[in-house]
Design goal:
alpha/beta, Rossmann fold, five-stranded mixed β-sheet, globular
Length: about 425
């Protein structure tokens, strides 16, 4: 088949929109690979989009109706995999972008999953535990035809946790009349969770950071780092990077940034954050803004907060030599060329934070086998797979003379496209 030139790619109306931002990178990678038009259309389009209403009786007796979503972007490589997030500002475009990123992430990590994402439009801070459980169980019941250990496997994401995964597992199990712990990952250990899962994304960020520093010839013990976001990913990344000798001079959360030129006391920060759910009042450093954290003079910057933190407006002010994206989509498409021009090595999200889905895969494998691994085995296998993924992306970027982000997209899209061609189109 002849390749096509993409005169009319998917419309990019708003570069700050996460789905359109993802599509801009996708289009460039598709041209580099000279994808046939049909394959291009297939890979940019989600295979399934499900919207459900979730009526529940609130604690005050009133009925409220919430909206839930599950978008399966692609399942050519295997069952779809992706988190469930609860947020009041959830949008379909956000979920579509996150589902597509999961497809590319799984392909890069070389695990047999496709990509999906889902969520419920709600404000969990305004819900009681009983209301959260009702929403979760009704959402799961409405998704019974979607979820399944061989079909679509959810996991925790923003504002969801092990307990919510346990409710999903239990609800699904009640309906299928058997305990099916492989239907979700990120569960408590007692019901089939994996050792190392909670720290996996942060550990993957650490492995990717060290690999990037080695390529740049930067010694960890003489380097400085700033971490934006101090949730699970940010805090674990900061601690593990510090353990490698990197001086973490700034961290931040929703209350703002905290700077200490001699290094943040991370044990104190993590302890305070667990007790108070914020770093405010911790005394770990001088107060600065979240924006200041991004623009500090450091060797490594880890954006581990939300999407669209590094944009065309502030990309030129970034002084870090390396950016390792702990969050999904922290850098907009408009910011990419600015960072490239300034010689910043960006380890993209679909590589840098793939430790979480890698250990989720390990959890699924252990659940299916009914045999569970030691923490050392989990971590060793994670680090090996992260190193392999980093090297594959780096070599692809060199081969096509592009950034690591585009190298990651090219590698992932090429693998999924080749799989699609081998499987063929059922009609």
């Amino acid at each position: 088949m002849d390749a096509v030139t993409y005169k009319e790619p998917a419309p990019i109306l708003d570069k700050e929109n996460p789905f359109e931002s993802m599509m801009e990178r996708f289009d460039v990678a598709a041209e580099l690979l000279e994808l046939e038009r049909g394959v291009y259309e297939y890979l940019k389009t989600p295979v399934k989009q499900v919207t459900v209403s979730i009526p529940i009786q609130m604690d005050n007796g009133e009925i409220e109706v919430f909206e839930g979503y599950r978008i399966i972007h692609n399942d050519a490589l295997g069952p779809s995999k992706g988190g469930i997030r609860y947020a009041p500002d959830l949008t379909v475009d956000e979920i579509k972008a996150l589902a597509a990123w999961m497809t590319w992430k799984c392909a890069i990590a070389n695990i047999p999953f496709g990509g999906a994402k889902g969520g419920v439009k709600c404000d969990p801070t305004r819900l009681t535990p009983v209301e959260l459980e009702k929403i979760t169980r009704r959402f799961t019941a409405n998704m019974l035809d979607v979820f399944g250990p061989d079909k679509d496997i959810p996991a925790p994401d923003m504002n969801t946790n092990e307990q919510i995964m346990a409710w999903i597992m239990d609800t699904y199990s009640m309906h299928v009349r058997r305990t099916e712990n492989a239907v979700v990952t990120g569960k408590p250990l007692i019901i089939g969770g994996s050792l190392g899962r909670r720290e996996a994304t942060g550990r993957g960020v650490m492995v990717a950071t060290l690999a990037a520093m080695a390529r740049k010839g930067i010694s960890p013990k003489q380097s400085k780092c700033a971490v934006q976001g101090f949730g699970n990913v940010g805090s674990v990344s900061a601690k593990l990077l510090s353990d490698q000798g990197i001086r973490v001079i700034a961290v931040s959360d929703v209350s703002g940034g905290y700077y200490n030129k001699d290094g943040i006391d991370l044990a104190k920060a993590m302890d305070w954050g667990q007790k108070h759910r914020t770093l405010e009042g911790s005394g770990i450093g001088d107060s600065i803004t979240n924006e200041d954290v991004l623009e500090l003079e450091v060797d490594v910057l880890v954006p581990a907060a939300k999407e669209d933190q590094i944009t065309a407006k502030n990309a030129g002010k970034i002084k870090a030599k390396i950016i390792v994206e702990g969050a999904n989509g922290p850098t907009t498409a408009k910011a990419d060329p600015i960072l490239d021009a300034n010689g910043v090595l960006v380890v993209p999200d679909i590589l840098a934070n793939s430790g979480g889905v890698t250990v989720s895969y390990f959890e699924w494998v252990q659940d299916r086998q009914g045999y569970f691994w030691t923490l050392d085995r989990v971590n060793r296998r994670l680090e090996r797979m992260m190193h392999d993924a980093f090297n594959n992306v780096f070599h692809t970027a060199e081969k096509y003379n592009v950034s690591m982000r585009l190298g990651a997209y090219v590698l992932a899209i090429d693998k999924v496209a080749k799989t699609l061609k081998v499987r063929g189109i059922y009609a």
